[in-house]
Structures are given as structure tokens and as C-alpha cells.
Amino acid sequence: MDMETLFDRWKSKELHKDQRFIPDGIVNSEKWVKSPHKILFILKEAYAKRDEEPAFDLRSTIKKQKARTKSLKPLGQWAYGLHHTLSNNSLTSFVRDGTLIDEALFSSAVINIKKSKGTKTSKNKKPHTICG
Q: Where are the domains of the chain?
């Protein structure tokens, strides 16, 4: 089963009906396959500023916004640091921004535990109550 079919089945579940369902996962399949290290970021939930905003695909959003937003920039920096530290067996210099962290983020995967009904502030709940 491919990811899009899985997401279609997942968003048809009762928990997600009539909600914005946010697909996620491997940002860029070609870069993921070529990367010697598979880095996965697990986030709590997807959030859009207004309820009326349409659902979005986190993978496409990352490709478009790159590591330039308040949420994505730290992920890109972590991805860059992890990729280079694992490859060189030593710590690498901090990279503040730019194409290096964009490319590192593109070769990673990013998922949200909660795929719909995200809010600006989250309550700590047991994962099985929000995964559906």
C-alpha cells in the first residue's frame, strides 16, 4: 500500500472526519534514499492558525517554506548537525541558516503524532488517544 492510500484510509476514520487531516512523512524521497542516515522528527501535532485554513501536506509545505520558519528552521539545523556528526564521527560547526540546512531537512522525514485538530497550545495526552 502506498502512503497516499494509507492517508486516505486514515483520514476517513471517525476521529478525522470533517477535520483538516495533515499528511506528513519523508520530505523528499530521492534525497531520503541517497542519505546515508535516516533522520525522523516526531512532532506532537499539526497546527494551522485559523480553522478556516485548508488542510495542507506537511511534506509540500516543508519543500515550499524550506527551513525558514520558526518551526522548520530548528529541524533543519538539527538535521544538518545530525547528518554531519554521524558522517564525520565528530561535532560539526553550527550552521544558522541557508541551503545546507534546507537540504538536510529535505533528506529527513517529519511526522506529527496527531494528524488533525491541531491547536496552538497542546495538552499532554496519551498518544493512543490522539493517533486514531
A: 25-131
For the stretch 72-91, pLDDT in tens is 999 999 999 999 999 888 88
> pTM for the complete prediction?
0.81
Mean pLDDT of 41-70: 82
* Cα angle: 71, vertex 76, 78; to 5 degrees: 100
